[in-house]
Each structure stands twice: as C-alpha cells, then as structure tokens.
Specification:
Helix content is 50%, strand content 7%. It contains 7 helices and 4 strands; from the N terminus they run E-H-E-H-E-E-H-H-H-H-H. The longest helix has 30 residues. Keywords: Transferase.
C-alpha cells in the first residue's frame, strides 16, 4: 500500500506508527499540504476531501481519516483489545480525540509552529479547551495505565500523536505527571524517540 502523508502531521504519523509496529509493508509518499498538493486533480480523485493521510491499496481502493485507517490496519492485532467493551472504550477515545482534543492541541501547535504566531495570539478559548482535554486525560491516566485498559491500544496511538507535542502548541505539560508517564511508555512501546 501507499501512504500519502505529511510527516509533520500527527494524524499522518499515527498511520506510519501502526504500520511500523505491525510490520506492515508500505511506501510513504510525502505530501506538502501547504503547497496545495492535496488539491491536485489526481489527489482529489483518491480523496475528495483533499486531506492527508490517505492510503491506497494495491487493488486501487483508498481510505482516509487517520483513525479509520488505523482502525482498519490494526483490526486483527494486539492494538485492538479482545474484549468487546474494551474495544468500545477504545473507540470512545478515538472519537473524543478528533472532536475534543485535536481541534485545540493540534491547532494551537499549527498556529505557533507553521503560521509563526506568538503564544499571545492564540485564541484563549482554544487554549482553555486544550487544557480541559489535558485535564481529562490526566484524571483518566492517574487511575489506569493506558486509555482502554492495561495494554497500549489504538486509543493511545491516536492520543499520543499530538499530546507528545503539546508543548509546541504552548501547552505546559509540567503539571501532568500521569500524562508524562504515559507518553514515555507509549513512545517506548511504539519504538519512538522521545519528543523534544
């Protein structure tokens, strides 16, 4: 399969990490979203939304949306719990990540790192909601090792992508001991170097 992705995007890296962890063969095709490479007729034919990541299988089928992709790729692996309720909890966190985490943590990072804004220019509501997401994660991880149980699941992969880089969005992880512990353990499980 071919993965069309931007290696600066946590959503794209989720797919790469799952493939690497599960030793799934793929070819990475770097897409520069800021140069409009997702808006070409060829790309829009694969993904009408014009977004990365997008994967294309050898038979020509395509799949988009990071959490849908990793859910499909890891369907028969240890990254998906065996217990049906644990799977539902994993999915709960996958949906929450895209609705209540990524729009704040990742967007603030994008504005600082890629748009060159100063922290003082960030939307205070996005910052507030980003900290609310981190607070919820901290409370959960203070009681459990990982998001869907005792083992790393896709929920952890999904939430790790932008949480490990939250500091680049102006978020201070200093007061989040459980999150910092979880980041280190999830990075080690996935074979990632520690985020700087």
């Amino acid at each position: 399969m071919q993965i069309y992705g931007d290696s600066n995007s946590g959503n794209c890296l989720k797919v790469k990490w799952v493939c690497d962890k599960l030793a799934l063969p793929y070819r990475w095709i770097e897409i520069d979203t800021r140069k409009g490479e997702t808006r070409t007729p060829q790309f829009l034919k694969m993904n009408g939304a014009g977004q990365v990541p997008t994967i294309e299988f050898d038979d020509g089928r395509t799949l988009a949306q990071s959490n849908a992709i990793i859910r499909y790729l890891a369907r028969d692996s240890a990254l998906v719990p065996r217990d049906a309720f644990a799977v539902a909890k994993m999915d709960e966190w996958l949906f929450w990540e895209q609705y209540s985490h990524e729009p704040y943590i990742a967007v603030c990072r994008f504005q600082l790192v890629y748009l060159g804004k100063d922290v003082s220019e960030l939307d205070p509501e996005k910052v507030r909601r980003g900290y609310a997401a981190l607070d919820r994660m901290e409370a959960h991880l203070a009681a459990v090792s990982f998001f869907a149980g005792d083992e790393v699941s896709l929920a952890d992969v999904s939430l790790l992508a932008y949480t490990r880089l939250a500091h680049e969005g102006g978020f201070d992880l200093g007061r989040y001991a459980a999150i910092r512990r979880w980041i280190a353990e999830a990075e080690a499980y996935l074979g990632l170097s520690a985020a700087r």
